[in-house]
Amino acid sequence: MMAALLVGATVRCESAPAVRHPASLQVRGIIPKGNLMAFKSNYGMQRADRNRAAQAQSEQKQRKRDEKSAQRKAERASEISSPPGDKKAQ
């Protein structure tokens, strides 16, 4: 009797659950192939963030250049002012 049961049947222990291999789940479409990501990448937004950061940095550099330029112009203007003995300035 026991031999008749074992011929075409698979015997499983009822206490241990059946574990499926992850590759078999991918074939059936249960688990998608590739990396599992929490959300789809938004490359346009990432590029916009990089562009904003680069623009802010270039604006900061330009402000520093303008400040140095204004300082040089002020120094030059004070140097160019006429000497006290100049007749044209009086």
List the helices and strands and how they pair.
Elements (H helix, E strand, L loop, with lengths): L1 H5 L15 H7 L14 H38 L10
Could you characterize the architecture of this molecule?
The structure is a single chain. The protein is mostly helical and 90 residues long. 56% of the residues lie in helices and 0% in strands. It has a domain at 22-78. The termini are far apart. 0% of the residues are buried. The model has no long low-confidence stretch (mean pLDDT 75).
Assign an overall shape: rod-shaped
How large is the share of residues in beta strands? under 5%
Helical residue percent band: 55-70%
Distance between the termini: 131 Å
* Tally of DSSP β-strands: 0
Largest sheet: none
Helix run count? 3
Annotation keywords:
90 residues, mainly alpha, 56% helix, 3 helices
Brief digest:
With 90 residues, this protein is mainly alpha-helical.
